[in-house]
Design goal:
single chain, 426 residues
């Protein structure tokens, strides 16, 4: 977990609508652009708007059901899209005997289904009706290729160098059965039923061409649950992701996306996703005092402000000392170690989900973070930061990396194309 934040969606007040609407009708309120617009649908049932810290009323909470994200575009959806309340990560392996032809047909089916569902429409075949009463709810479906995919399809010469397997880390306790995979799908939505509906459709579309290798389910705070947009908190109660690169920054695209003239050509405007299931040892963590927890992270638990002072966005003063000459931000604090300026400028766009998969037989919660980060090159993003964490991160005592995957996520599909078409038909 690094000290970076995911951009928050900005909500705006909208008028409430009356009566019941189909998913198609709800989509119509989102406008022809298909962008997330925060349209109406449930404001009438909301409580009065809370006041901000100055006593002024904030924008009322509104329905998120009609928010829609475009499927077609320069980049795939689900990378710069604001964090969603529910998520599913699922990896597939191609079936025995399936190759490039079957993979192309599968990506064509998946892309057509994703386009329909993200627009708030039912699946073309055998829709389950799970999301019949809901709008698009900011649904995104994102597709990627694992290292093994290229040998399975005879496309080894098109495999990117950046997709070489990640190095081993001392903190790894990886379950191979829940790691890697030929194909990877990320699903996110602001409604649990909409997310599940998409997951089920993707699984059904796989048919005989591919089988599920592993699946993980996650969640985040629901949009509108706070009086103003805020950086997310993780299951340790910490504000998680303050220094995420932002699209408004001049070097954002360079850090996150493969250039349009990059290599290989089919990865133009794509990105590389590192996926890690990170177990949080919550029983041990919660035995620490709040002050001790803040020393581990290097930030105030309540506000996310650096221990050196200021607000959440105040630059951290790494040299500041207390009256005894001790560093205010401990030398092994997580936020210090993960800073880009402490890692040769390495940065990645973190877009995680929390998870809780029940209680183990020994009474310990199986909970933590489904860590997903995006970068133009993992060797310049995730790898140097994780190596630094391996050498002495105070947080490492309280987390365990249990699964891992690296996936090449091509650029977005143009209208009339499917994701990966330039690879599979090039």
């Amino acid at each position: 977990m690094s000290d970076q934040s995911t951009p928050d969606a900005v909500s705006s007040p909208e008028a409430a609508t009356k009566g019941g609407f189909s998913r198609r009708q709800l989509l119509g309120t989102a406008g022809a652009t298909g962008l997330a617009l925060g349209a109406a649908g449930g404001a009438a049932g909301c409580a009065a708007a809370p006041n901000d810290e100055n006593g002024a009323p904030t924008a009322p909470l509104t329905s998120v059901g009609s928010d829609a994200v475009m499927f077609h575009g320069k980049h795939q959806p689900g990378i710069t899209t604001a964090l969603q309340a529910r998520g599913h990560l699922v990896a597939f392996d191609l079936a025995a005997g399936a190759g490039r032809k079957e993979a192309a047909a599968l990506l064509r089916r998946w892309s057509a289904t994703a386009q329909r569902l993200m627009a708030g429409e039912p699946a073309a075949q055998d829709d389950t009706d799970v999301a019949r009463d809901a709008g698009p709810s900011s649904l995104t479906v994102t597709f990627g290729f694992g290292h093994s995919f290229f040998a399975r399809t005879g496309l080894e010469k098109q495999r990117p160098v950046a997709l070489d397997p990640l190095p081993d880390f001392s903190s790894d306790h990886l379950d191979k059965a829940r790691s890697n995979g030929d194909l990877w799908v990320q699903i996110g939505a602001n409604d649990a039923l909409v997310a599940f509906h998409a997951l089920r459709a993707v699984q059904k579309d796989a048919g005989s061409a591919a089988r599920v290798r592993w699946q993980m389910n996650g969640f985040n705070r629901s949009p509108g649950a706070t009086g103003r947009p805020m950086t997310a908190r993780n299951l340790m109660g910490q504000i998680d992701g303050t220094r995420n690169p932002k699209p408004s920054e001049s070097d954002f695209d360079r850090r996150v996306f493969v250039p349009g003239a990059g290599e290989p050509a089919w990865m133009a405007n794509g990105s590389y996703a590192v996926v890690r299931r990170i177990r949080m040892l919550l029983d041990d963590w919660e035995k620490l005092s709040p002050t001790a927890q803040e020393d581990v992270i290097g930030r105030k638990k309540a506000t996310g402000a650096p221990l050196s002072g200021g607000t959440e966005t105040t630059p951290m003063d790494l040299d500041k000392t207390d009256t005894d000459g001790n560093l205010v931000v401990p030398i092994n604090a997580h936020a210090r170690i993960t800073r880009p300026d402490q890692n040769g400028g390495a940065a990645m766009l973190r877009r995680p989900f929390s998870f809780h998969d029940g209680i183990d037989t020994d009474g310990v919660p199986d909970a933590g973070l489904l860590f997903v980060c995006w970068q133009a090159d993992p060797l310049r993003g995730f790898v140097p930061v994780q190596r630094k964490l391996d050498r002495g991160d105070a947080l490492s005592t309280f987390v365990r990396h249990e699964s891992s995957g690296l996936f090449a996520v091509p650029g977005g599909a143009a209208t009339g194309e499917y994701v990966g078409q330039r690879l599979l038909e090039g």
